[in-house]
Amino acid sequence: MKARSLLFQRLGLSRFEERSVSEDLWLVVGLGNPGPNYAGNRHNAGFMVLDLLAERVRGSFRSHKSRCDVVEGRLGAVRVVLAKPRSYMNESGGPVKAVRDFYKVPTERLVVVHDELDIEFGAIRLKKGGGDNGHNGLRSITRSIGDKEYSRLRFGVGRPPGRMDAAAFVLKDFSTAERKELPLFVDRAADAVESLAEKGLEATQNVFHAL
């Protein structure tokens, strides 16, 4: 064991990363666009949820060679890596594959948190696998990892009003009225991530799809 630890030290891996090779580690990825100009956008709902989860694990995001910002910690009884790609949304796949491969997390323990147009604002839906429904971040991830059977936490942002283009809508900030309720819904989404990792998909759907 001592020799193994010395090997990991020479490779520049933390004690957490050494254990993560064999433990049931979960990787939770939040999608968004980097930089302050995008921070309040509907498209950055995934980043918002990850920021709250980082607070819960009492960690701070740090730059990682995968081109993600990561936090390592524990949600309840579950060890997690939280990751926010530093790429733009439509190029999320490369960083997600890199961080997944680095931590050796199988697809069944990968969760992607993202905004969803076809769900009303504030509603949360969870599923495993399926298509990307026109979401460029999901499309990029599925293409890069070669597998669509990862879990998704879909954060509802609703459809654009009138004839507004959907791409323009998600790149706008939440409305004043929405921002009053946003902290509650972000908190609920973070709860759902914890439940998914601890209790599984079906039990989590039974609770959060009823809200």
Automatic annotation (TrEMBL):
Residues bound to tRNA: 38, 88, 90, 136
**Which keywords are on file for this protein?**
Cytoplasm, Hydrolase, RNA-binding, tRNA-binding
Q: Does the keyword Transcription apply?
A: no
A Pfam family this protein belongs to? Pept_tRNA_hydro
Marked site, Discriminates between blocked and unblocked aminoacyl-tRNA, at 33
Instruction: Return the InterPro entries for the record.
Output: Pept_tRNA_hydro (IPR001328), Pept_tRNA_hydro_CS (IPR018171), Pept_tRNA_hydro_sf (IPR036416)
Record's catalysed reaction(s):
an N-acyl-L-alpha-aminoacyl-tRNA + H2O = an N-acyl-L-amino acid + a tRNA + H(+)
Its chief place of residence is cytoplasm
Write out the GO MF terms.
Answer: hydrolase activity
Q: Note the SUPFAM superfamilies from the entry.
A: Peptidyl-tRNA hydrolase-like
Instruction: Please list which residues make up the signal peptide.
Output: none
Residues folding into a coiled coil are none
Say which family it is in.
Belongs to the PTH family.
Report quaternary structure and partners. Monomer.
The name of this protein is Peptidyl-tRNA hydrolase
- Species name for this entry? Actinocorallia longicatena
Designated gene of the protein: pth
